[in-house]
Amino acid sequence: MDLSKKKILLAEDDPIYSIWIKMVLEEIGINNILYAVNVKKAIEEYQSNLPDLIICDIFLEGKQTGIDLMRKLQSYQIPIIVITNSMDKSLYAEVKKVQHVNYLIKPFQPLSLISIIENIFHELESSKKNSILKEPYIAIKNHENIYVKVYLNDILYLEADKNYTYLYTLGKKIALKRTLLSLINDLNTQFIRIHKSFIVNKIHVISWNSETVTLTNQLNIPIGRKFLSDFFKEIEK
User: Fold this and answer.
1) FRET partner for 51 with CA separation of 20 to 30 A, picked from 2, 74, 102, 220?
2) Burial (0-12, 13-18, 19+ Cβ within 10 Å), 115
3) By residue range, what is the domain housing residue 199?
């Protein structure tokens, strides 16, 4: 398996372990490594560079922990390897509540880390091959008058602008010459209308209150009063 194109985010505040893990990753051909010593920096690195995998310690610099980081990034469905020297079962229980997480107790052997990394990417490749034809999408006509697929899971939100609708993914803003209302039938149940001008993808919602919804890119979208009750019902499904 060629891992040379994979990008890893390492959230570790122990410089000795950080250097050691870097050497292990380079041994298997992974040289594109991002570094963070606290949760804030890790989130910034994730949003700027979109790594393929996160390796993070539970105890990082500052008040927030690796568990806080996992919760904030859970909706991205990014695979995570948690490393810690703690034998606290309650910490393990908290970690296991988050999906796509593996667990390693320090000190661990290089082969233990390598095996987990290889298994993660092998499973991701197999899953991608099996699901690529099944993943729901909408067909968007581009400026060359050619239809292209936009997968629904990649869409953060949609914004109305008169007879146009802007569709936002993590990396793109796409203008459609269609009204927001006409697009609703092309979407599935993971999309919720929260305002006369906005529809959000609930898999990218990380927090909310009675006034705003916060998405995984840290953008706050307003909730209209008439949509508030339906939003609370749908977000908990």
Assistant:
1) 220
2) exposed
3) 137-235
Judged by DSSP in three states, 20 sits in helix
Give the domain CATH number at 29.
3.40.50.2300
Per-residue pLDDT tens digits for 111-157: 999 999 999 999 888 766 655 556 788 888 766 677 888 889 899 99
Count the alpha carbons within 13 Å of 151 in the hemisphere toward its beta carbon. 9
Burial annotation 149-182 (CB, 10 A radius, 16+ → b, else e): ebebebbbbbbbeeeebebbbeeeeeebebebee
- DSSP, res 184: G
Using the 8-state DSSP alphabet, how is residue 179 labeled?
-
pTM over 0.90: no
Same-domain status, 22 and 116:
yes
Going 143 to 148 to 154 to 158, the CA torsion angle's sign is: positive
Are 156 and 51 found together in one domain?
no
Q: Cβ distance 3 to 121 under 8 Å?
A: yes
Provide the domain count of the chain: 2
Query: From CA 236, how far away is CA 185, in angstroms rounded?
Result: 22
Over the stretch 210-226, which tens digit does the pLDDT of each residue have?
Answer: 999 999 888 999 999 99
